[in-house]
Amino acid sequence: MSETIKKFLYLNRKAPYGTIYAWESLEVVLIGAAFDQDVSLAFVEDGVYQLTKDQDTTGIGMKNFSPTYAALGDYEVKKIFIEKESLDERGLTLDDLQHLVWEDEDDDWAEKDSIKLVSREEMTALMEDADVVFSF
Amino acid sequence: MSTLHTVNKSPFEKTSLDVCLSHAGAGASVLLLEDGVYGATKGTAVETRVKQALDSVKLFVLGPDLKARGLSEDRVIEGISVVDYAGFVDLAAENDKVQAWL
Amino acid sequence: MPIEVNGKSLETDEEGYLANINDWEPGVAEVMSKEDDLELTDEHWDIINYLREYYEEYQIAPAVRVLTKAVGKKFGKDKGNSKYLYGLFPYGPAKQACRYAGLPKPTGCV
């Protein structure tokens, strides 16, 4: 059975906790990781808020799923794109976000950066280049 | 008649905050909660609009919702007071009515 | 149906997973494995403890292939395969080991 590898882009546009989209997207990504496709995650607009550091949900009685993003590397999800304009509009920089890495098995498990900061123009190109875009 | 307005939507996704601020009477209280708390942070594209509103209304933001989203209190615009759930209850009790902007 | 562990009654869901992860204690794994007629060895405990550490750090139970790879890295290449894990947990590392470890069913596991 021959299968063609498709480029999947998960497009995340919502903040966490206020709605269920962010967590649903993360679950779909983790499940979809079993299918050996070429997976990229994009965070634009309020989606960039999903990755802020130091989230602590004890006060609102909801599950804090921000630690789960750090597991993405284990699931072979190594391409995470953040749109710079979206950060700027929200007064954020990459330093306000988690530092996500993946371990390269072929390079003695060296940690490599998963996150790449891109411009809106580059984000457009990523979307056009994808075979399938899943929107959350 | 005093009113407490609540806004629980992100100002970047919905117009709730802007419309609320445009309709809140002088001296009203506005509480930002859930995804509304993003409107209370410094350096955003809506910061000027929010600061301008501080001239006529009192602004509050719910602390537990800030914390959940990884936003420390030092990111909050000066003049906006951080309250906890008990403070939310006090605000609701102090005002004659509550108007929710969804 | 609740399970009895050291005199305490712990709530489980319809598939036998603990309802509350904070209820877990080693006795949970002992009781559950006894019901499956399985004797827990140090090798079983390595996996159970690893699953609990993984959950503590990432707030999810790892998928089988993620677990397999991690076990190979941590406990030696000869153990990083599904044959080894299924040898320890015949009902499957996800369904059996995660249940013993008190974790919810892994995401995407049917």
Report on this structure.
The complex is a heterotrimer of chains A (136), B (102) and C (110). By secondary structure, chain A is of the alpha/beta class. Chain A has three helices and seven strands. In chain A, strands 6-3-2-1-7 form a five-stranded parallel β-sheet, with helices on both faces. Chain A has a two-stranded antiparallel sheet with strand order 4-5. In chain A, strand 1, helix 1 (21-32) and strand 2 (38-43) form a beta-alpha-beta unit. The N and C termini of chain A lie far apart (31 Å). The model of chain A has no long low-confidence stretch (mean pLDDT 95). Chain B is α/β, with parallel strands linked by helices. Helices cover 30% and strands 22% of the residues of chain B. The relative contact order of chain B is 0.26. By secondary structure, chain C is mainly alpha-helical. In chain C, strands 1-2 form a two-stranded antiparallel sheet. In chain C, a hairpin with a 2-residue loop joins strand 1 and strand 2 (8-10). Chains in contact: A-B, A-C. The A-C interface holds A 27, 30-31, 33-34, 63-65, 67-68, 70-71, 74-75, 105, 109 and C 57-60, 62-63, 65-66, 69-70, 73, 107-108.
Keywords, separated by commas or semicolons:
heterotrimer, A: alpha/beta, two-stranded antiparallel ribbon, 21% helix, C: 110 residues, mainly alpha, Arc Repressor Mutant, subunit A, two-stranded antiparallel sheet, 2 strands, 5% strand
The topology string of helices and strands of chain C comes to EEHHHHH
Major sheet details of chain B? 5 strands, parallel
Interface with most residues:
A-B, 26 and 25 residues
CATH top level of chain C is Mainly Alpha
Write down the Rg of chain C: 13 Å
CATH architecture of chain B: 3-Layer(aba) Sandwich
Order of helices and strands of chain B: EHEHEHEHE
Q: Which superfamily, in CATH terms, is the homologous superfamily of chain C?
A: DsrC protein, C-terminal domain
Q: What is the global morphology of chain C? A: globular
What oligomeric state is this? heterotrimer
Summarize the structure.
The complex is a heterotrimer of chains A (about 140), B (about 100) and C (about 110). Chain A is α/β, with parallel strands linked by helices and about 140 residues long.
